[in-house]
Amino acid sequence: MYVHIEYTVSSSSYLIDFIHRPKYISQMKRLQAFKFELRLTGTHVRQLYRIAGSCRFVYNKALALQKERYDCGEKKLTYAGLCKQLTLWRNNPEWVWLKVSPSQALQQALKDLERAYQHFFAKRADFPRFKRRGVRDAFRFPQGVKLDQANSRVYLPKLGWVRYRNSRQVEGEISQVTISRSCDKWYVSIQTERDVAVSFHPSTTSVGVDVGIARLATLSDGTVFEAVNSFKSHQQRLAAYQRAVSRKKKFGQNWKKAIGKVSRLHKKIRHIRQDYLHQTSNIISKNHAMVCLEDLQIKNMSKSAAGTSDLPGRQVKAKSGLNKAILDQGWYELKRQLDYKQWWRGGTVVFVSPRNTSRTCPHCGYIASENRLTQSRFACTQCQYENNADLVGAINILRAGHAQLACGEMVRLGHSMNQEPPEVAQSLVARAR
What we know:
The chain has 433 residues and is an alpha+beta fold. The chain folds into two domains: 2-26 and 203-432, no CATH class; 30-197, no CATH class. It is 40% helix and 20% strand. The two termini are 31 Å apart.
């Protein structure tokens, strides 16, 4: 769904006047997932481990078969061909235990492998790897699932009715259900699809967001969201738990208990980060109809600088600390949350080029690396304008977003849009001032 935006730039308030959508569009499809913790008996836990193990076995078996065919110069099997092989595996007396697991869950494991190959050939991911036991145990049910919200229970094929911790109402028609394990707990994620009325964002303001390490986000209106640093605050305890693991006999009972402590602490760190990012993205999304962000290549920014034995990297320790600080903030997750929340609320997210956003003076437009003297202080060497460097970056990001819209592009609400070359954006910024 696309929408053309007409706007007026104001240097004081940065207001935007939206023409939201064509009048004939009144509804849209919304996919939403509702995740709950399962309340399991001992029998249920054993069954879940058995199904997860069967899905892992089928995935690895199919991947080994595809590799074998490749080595022999044969074409890889399609999903339909793998399903035929699955039937043979289930009828094999050696693997008769595969019949205990739901066939649709095993078929979904083959679909995951097919999707992994597609991503590899499209150069979006590395070559598929074999799955390991106990790592990311999960499986899906595309059909045959029933939900009884009144009694807080869900019906799963070959498992029966299973109770869950009901924390909110599930809305929409169930499209698929995913069962996953995190630490020693199992969760059900219910994906639904429903028609919702097209939203019109109640706000008419726009804002630029500059993400950082000392501060999670600085808005162009002066609002600051401090960094929570969940990993940094638990780093010493995590190191102590990991040292305890190294002293235990591998795969022994004490080793498993120590591994459990490490996993639970990692889970706590992740939950603290996720909760803070949701709070931050909610505040920004509710108060602003248009959010401008830098289109940062976070994967490239957080790459290791270790290099190879022939070409060792430079300042590896400093770069490692920077990578750790970047990943601790969760920039990509904040971008993802703002993306879909703006889409749901009828707003939009504009991604601009990060080039010179921290070096350009918002007062006179002079661009120089000497303008940013320190990490937190910006001082223009031409007009002597001074301000916080993060705030200056946010103002420049907002102006670049306005300049990008000046080209009269068609903007897709809540999703990435095509970018103008940096030179064009800079010239438009100068005209918009």
